[in-house]
Write a structure and sequence with these properties.
The chain has 2 domains: about 220 residues, Alpha-Beta Complex (Spore Coat Polysaccharide Biosynthesis Protein SpsA, Chain A), CATH 3.90.550.10; about 60 residues, no CATH class. It is about 40% helix and about 25% strand. The chain has 11 helices and 10 strands. β7 and β8 form a beta hairpin. The chain is globular, with a radius of gyration of 19 Å.
């Protein structure tokens, strides 16, 4: 189903000057555009401190435009590993394939249509180095729209206890902003796809139950591409059923109480079956 194609060079035990011990873990697929992918990759190759490695999973066939953008990476000083899947398996499957190839101690998530701040790697890697007890380092982010719609901040608590308290109610961690210790990610078995688009939320809960420590840097280090279509996919009855299943799992493993499960499931039941326009307004209530 997949094969690894390593492009470049040495695999030094330590990073040379100007690089951080970071593997960027990302995937792309047929639904992505070459323009978005190029902007994303340029934001990685133009970091003030470069990641040592980029592991890019190509999740099924992609068009010539994306292939051309990826070919340009061969000239970058960042070590590149390409993993090609014959057929798309979804984000969780693709990321797990990529995780196997990550050789650095830190894995930095990135989505193929998002944009990093130039100092993202420098800031997050420095925090991880200074705080070895922290397993997950995320950041605040900004939703932006290609049609010029007003952008929205995505903020969250910053300290571990507050983050866990908030996670019982909603996912407050922006997935593509995450820098995570590769060992911690592997020890819980990577991602799961059993709850559909909730693979990141499920990951954080399992990390928390395994004793992982979280921190969110109170600075926008990511611009996350948003759309009304994207938000529409996070509603409807099928999505609600998966979410109920996920929260039932959280209750079963002790991440939330029975009372929390009842209250949260009821509130999100209303949210998920609300119209697209109303759901967008509710999303805005948790942004600043």
């Amino acid at each position: 189903m997949s094969q690894s194609q390593s492009i470049s060079i040495d695999r030094e035990a330590s990073c040379p000057e100007g690089f951080a011990d970071v593997s960027v873990l990302m995937s792309t697929y047929a639904g992505e555009t070459a323009t978005n992918l190029k902007q994303c990759l340029e934001s990685i190759t133009q970091q003030t401190i470069l990641p040592r490695e980029l592991v890019l999973v190509i999740d099924g066939p992609i068009d010539a435009g994306q292939e051309a953008v990826i070919a340009e990476l061969a000239t970058s000083s960042i070590r590149l590993t390409l993993i090609r899947r014959e057929r798309s398996g979804g984000l969780a499957v693709a990321l797990n394939d990529g995780l196997k190839a990550c050789s650095c101690s830190l894995a930095m998530r990135m989505d193929s249509d998002d944009v990093c701040a130039p100092d993202r790697v420098a800031i997050q890697a420095a925090y991880a180095s200074a705080h070895p007890e922290v397993d997950v380092v995320a950041s605040w982010a900004e939703d932006f729209y290609a049609d010029g719609r007003r952008s929205q901040m995505k903020i969250s608590p910053t300290e571990h206890a507050d983050i866990l308290a908030a996670l019982r109610w909603r996912n407050v961690i922006v997935h593509p902003s995450v820098l995570i210790r590769t060992k911690a990610l592997r020890e819980i078995g990577g991602y799961r796809s059993k709850f559909g688009m909730l693979e990141d939320y499920d990951l954080y809960v399992r990390l928390a139950m395994a004793g992982a420590k979280f921190h969110v840097i109170p600075k926008v280090l990511m611009q996350v591409r948003a759309s009304l279509q994207q938000r529409a996919r996070r509603g409807g009855f099928p999505y609600l059923l998966r979410e109920i299943g996920f929260r039932a799992e959280c209750r079963r493993i002790g991440f939330m109480t029975n009372a929390e499960f009842i209250v949260i499931t009821t509130l999100y039941g209303v949210f998920r079956i609300a119209s697209g326009a109303m759901r967008s307004q509710l999303y805005a209530l948790v942004r600043t």
